[in-house]
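Annual report, structural modelling task.

Input specification for the zinc ion complex:
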Amino acid sequence: MYKCWKCKKDIKELDPNFVRCPYCACRILSKARQPVAREVKAK
Ligand SMILES: [Zn+2]
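The model returned the following structure:
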C-alpha cells in the first residue's frame, strides 16, 4: 500500500516501472504500512 504525498490518496497496486500517482501524476509516494490484524495480549 502506498500513499500519494500530494493528493493523499491510497494506491493499492503500483507498477515498479511506473512509480507515479495515477490520480495526480505525483512521483512522490510514501509507503503506508498495512494494518496487521493481530491480537495483542495485555499483561
Ligand atoms: Zn496523487
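The chain is about 0% helix and 20% strand.
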